[in-house]
Amino acid sequence: MTPPLHVYMQRLSSSLAEHAVAVMPAARKDWARAMRAELASLDEGIERVRWSFGCLRAAYSERVRNFAVLDRLAVRIFIALLSLNEAHGLLWSAKLAWVYRTNPSWAARYLSSERIQVFAAIPTLLIGLSAISAALYAVAAAYLVCHRRNAVPYYAAAVGTELVSLMGFSWVSVSVDSWSLRSEASHYGVWLGYTVLTLMIANHFRHREFPPSRGPT
Amino acid sequence: MTRLPNRSTQTLRLLAELLGSPRAWQHGYELSKATGLKSGTLYPILMRLADQGLLTSKWEGSDHPGVPPRHVYRLTPDGLAYARNQAESEPAPLGARVSRAKS
User: Fold this and answer.
1) Topology given in CATH for the domain delimited by B9-91
2) What is the domain partition of chain B in residue ranges?
3) Residues within 8 A of B (CB atoms), A 4-43 only
4) Residue range A13-66, pLDDT digits in tens
5) What 3-state DSSP class applies to A104?
6) Which residue of A has its CA nearest to B49?
7) How far lies A177's CA from each of A93, A164, A165, A198, B23, in Å?
8) How many residue contacts between A and B have a Cβ separation below 8 Å?
9) I want to staple A118 with a disulfide (CB 3.0 to 4.6 A). Which of A6, A48, A179, A187 is the partner?
């Protein structure tokens, strides 16, 4: 017998809240436990899931705040430049794919005949997603330089949108059986960017702690 | 580009709510419902206010078996003074709370 939907939602919300407790820096653990404890008072269903997603967001925000390396403006500017490079690459791909439809000979100057077939098959939705992802990277870069915590949602949205568009591009390239995303592997900015992200994640798991908090008591 | 501390709309809304019942201990979910703030916004503000010594918190056990203790919050004397001070410079929504509390 399949459990009802609310049972799955309860499990999901409990798992998310547990994960939030695990992610929260040690000096803030009690706050995560406080958020998790509220779950027992919430009605079953979507409200619990919403609450636990909020817990997760708060926990990751605290983690990101703890990236001491991001306190350095030079580091933030460096990552922002990488992000702008990524945005430029995405915009350029979107532009090529779009212009190909109106002016194939112009696009042909930049693409081999095999890649032209791929670009011809790219749906408008993917072009739009690439452009949106580029815009999100640009906004995230600006926020990173000015106010780093606010950059996190934009980075998450940019990476998510890019992944969806990359999956779409990948599917198109496989379907026309002529071009592989491997050809983009030499795009140094992408790999440099992901290396920096990996370093940030590694830094995240070093579990540096906040100075002692006055709350909760 | 640096924002003034505790001057965001969300923080002011939370301060207003806490100032509305200065002696009462309030749960996180109650505060969330009263202010309309999601948990992901509410708790970072609570943490910041606690760090600044403006908010105090404690665990409160439940009378119902199986229900875990919950965290409750209220403003410290410094927090009350701060919130009232903010209310004087911010007509709404904090100002409305102060005038209601005085009446």
Assistant:
1) Arc Repressor Mutant, subunit A (1.10.10)
2) 9-91
3) 28, 30-31, 33-35, 37-38, 40-42
4) 999 999 999 889 888 999 999 999 998 888 777 889 999 999 998 998 888 777
5) helix
6) A215
7) 19, 20, 18, 32, 70
8) 86
9) A179
